[in-house]
Design goal:
about 350 residues; alpha/beta; Arginase, Chain A; 10 strands; about 15% strand; binds zinc ion
């Protein structure tokens, strides 16, 4: 198995985010990636630097206007001084547009576009954010390319994460949807691709991107969103639309659920995947389901990750594993190790 990561992904260094009405220290620390790399090194897994393929491939799942915004927002944020405004240290929205945000933002102003394209207060854009986001996407693209070229499994050490990013909206520490990019890349060769998201949070961005498509099955196991981010989606009744009807499966877990509930959800996910008959799999992998994660409401232990790896192995599909969340830095290495033990005993 090969893994992909660029040191440029460490450059994104968020300074703040808003949680329950407080400005907090960020949870998406560069140390997360370093902890995961430690496990890859211990297991002798080679870490390749992904090719820098620019941003054109990102337009497979994101709108051009949104990517233009992400790429230029920080520099334009500095220019608001010319209007007599003193910009904060990072780009953050202070408005929420009324009604639909469909299509490009009607205003050219960076302040307006930040409200339009950034869905919450957990996605600050700093001087190096775009570079890290772009390279994180490249890691996912490289892992997918490796699987298309014949490797059975590849691991994209993505940081920043991606599964909350919609086609034209950043949210939940996510800017570009790495898992969706991996799925779109696998579609070059494979007629049907399944995405099985096992992060603690609903993969709302991935669901939105593929919601009306019948060639990509999106499944997400996550904590019940009635009391947990992303709140507005992730419910069991969301099944897809149009051609994509019955191609989206949400498996919300009651808060406090442990390994047994997760195992049952995986049973249902495996049944749905086998019915769909995909030719390849993307696995958005989060460790924020761990019981002691600072934002966890679930009660998984390390055995849950070994179990997940074993289930993925049993599916026998060409698989791209894409790193998503997990914020207890000390547990990330052991969690990845447990997952890989299940995947490749
Ligand atoms: Zn998460």
């Amino acid at each position: 198995m090969r893994a992909f990561f660029s040191d440029d992904q460490l450059l994104h260094d968020p300074q703040q985010y808003m949680r329950v009405g407080r400005i907090c220290k960020p949870a998406d620390l560069p140390a997360r990636a370093e902890a995961l790399m430690g496990t890859l090194a211990t297991r002798g897994i080679a870490i390749g630097i992904p090719s820098d393929v620019g941003r054109a491939a990102l337009e497979r799942v994101h709108s051009t206007d949104y990517l233009d915004y992400l790429e230029t927002a920080y520099a334009r944020w500095q220019q608001i001084r010319s209007f007599g405004l003193e910009p904060g240290i990072e780009v953050l929205p202070n408005m929420s547009p009324h009604g639909s945000r469909q299509g490009p933002c009607p205003s050219p102003a960076v302040l307006a576009q930040t409200g339009w394209y950034v869905g919450d207060l957990s996605c600050p854009i700093g001087p190096n954010t775009w570079r890290s986001v772009l390279r994180s996407a490249h890691a996912a693209l490289a892992a997918a390319r490796t699987v298309l070229d014949g490797d059975r499994i590849a691991y994209a050490l993505c940081r920043p994460s991606g599964h909350h990013a919609q086609s034209a909206r950043a949210a939940g520490f996510c800017y570009v949807n790495n898992s969706a990019l991996a799925a779109a890349t696998l579609r070059e060769t494979h007629a049907r691709v399944a995405v099985l998201d096992i992060d603690a949070h609903h993969g709302d961005g991935t669901q939105q991107i593929f919601y009306d498509r019948d060639d990509v099955l999106t499944i997400s196991t996550h904590a019940d969103p009635a009391g947990y981010y992303p709140w507005y989606t992730g419910y069991a009744h969301e099944c897809g639309a149009g051609a994509g009807e019955d191609c989206n499966l949400n498996l919300p877990l009651p808060h406090g659920s442990g390994n047994a509930a997760f195992s049952q959800a995986l049973d249902r996910a495996v049944e749905a995947i086998e019915r769909f008959r995909p030719e390849a799999l993307v696995l958005p992998l989060g460790f924020d389901t761990y019981r002691d994660d600072p934002i966890s409401v679930l009660g998984f232990d390390l055995e849950a990750f070994r179990l997940a790896g074993a289930r993925v192995r049993a599916l026998g599909l060409p698989t791209v594993v894409v790193q998503e969340g997990g914020y207890m830095v000390d547990i990330l290495g052991p969690a990845l190790d447990a997952f890989l033990e299940g995947l490749q005993p």
